[in-house]
Specification:
By secondary structure, this protein is mainly α. About 6% of the residues have low confidence.
C-alpha cells in the first residue's frame, strides 16, 4: 500500500472547497434569478417558515429568533442527513439552496430599496450571515464526510460510524449559531437606536 505524501490535503478540506463552490453557484443563480425576474420580489429567507409563532417586529427577541431559526433551517437537515447515506445528496442541495436564497434576498433588497439600503444592511446583517455561513459550511463538510462513510457502511460493510462525534460537532455548531444570533440581535437593536 502506497503512503500518502505529507503535503496531501485532508479530505474534509477538499469537501469544504467543493461546498464553497456550490454555495457560490447557488448565490449567483439566486442573484440572476432575482435580477431577471419580471415580478417584484420581496427579500426572502428560510425564517419565513418560522415567523408565525413570533410577534412581528424589530425587537431583540424577534430578530434573535428569526435569525437563529433561519440558520437552524439548514443546520438541522445537514446534521440529521449527515448520519445517513442520503446526506450525500441532501447536504449539497441544502448548501446550494442557502446560497440561492441569500442571493435572491440581497438582489431583491437592492432592486426594491436601492443600493443605500444594501450598504446599511452590510453593517449588521451581512457580517453575521457570513459567520453563520462559515459555521454551516464547516458543519456541512464534516457531515458530508460522515455521510460518505455511512455510504461505505451501508453498501460495502465498512467500519461502524461514531454518532458521538457527529453529535458533538452539531452541538458546537448550534452553540456558535446561538452566539452569532445573539450578536446579530444586539447589533440590529443598537443600529436602530442610533
Amino acid at each position: 500500500m502506497e503512503a500518502k505524501p505529507k503535503y496531501a490535503k485532508p479530505r474534509s478540506l477538499s469537501v469544504l472547497m467543493a461546498l464553497r463552490i456550490l454555495f457560490l453557484l447557488g448565490f449567483l443563480f439566486g442573484c440572476l434569478f432575482a435580477r431577471t425576474s419580471q415580478i417584484a420580489m420581496a427579500p426572502v429567507s428560510g425564517s419565513v417558515w418560522f415567523r408565525g409563532p413570533f410577534k412581528t417586529g424589530t425587537d431583540f427577541p424577534f430578530v434573535f429568533s428569526a435569525f437563529l431559526f433561519d440558520s437552524l433551517f439548514y443546520a438541522l437537515p445537514i446534521f440529521l442527513f449527515g448520519m445517513t447515506f442520503l446526506g450525500v445528496f441532501v447536504i449539497p442541495a441544502a448548501i446550494i439552496l442557502k446560497g440561492f436564497t441569500l442571493g435572491t434576498s440581497l438582489t431583491a433588497l437592492i432592486r426594491l430599496e436601492g443600493i443605500g439600503s444594501y450598504f446599511r444592511r452590510c453593517f449588521d446583517y451581512l457580517p453575521m450571515t457570513m459567520l453563520c455561513i462559515t459555521v454551516l459550511l464547516l458543519l456541512a463538510a464534516e457531515a458530508l464526510c460522515t455521510a460518505r462513510r455511512s455510504c461505505r457502511v451501508f453498501f460495502e460493510n465498512g467500519e461502524p460510524l461514531s454518532v458521538k462525534n457527529c453529535t458533538m460537532r452539531f452541538l458546537f455548531a448550534f452553540a456558535a449559531l446561538v452566539f452569532i444570533s445573539i450578536l446579530y440581535g444586539a447589533l440590529h437593536f443598537l443600529i436602530l437606536q442610533i
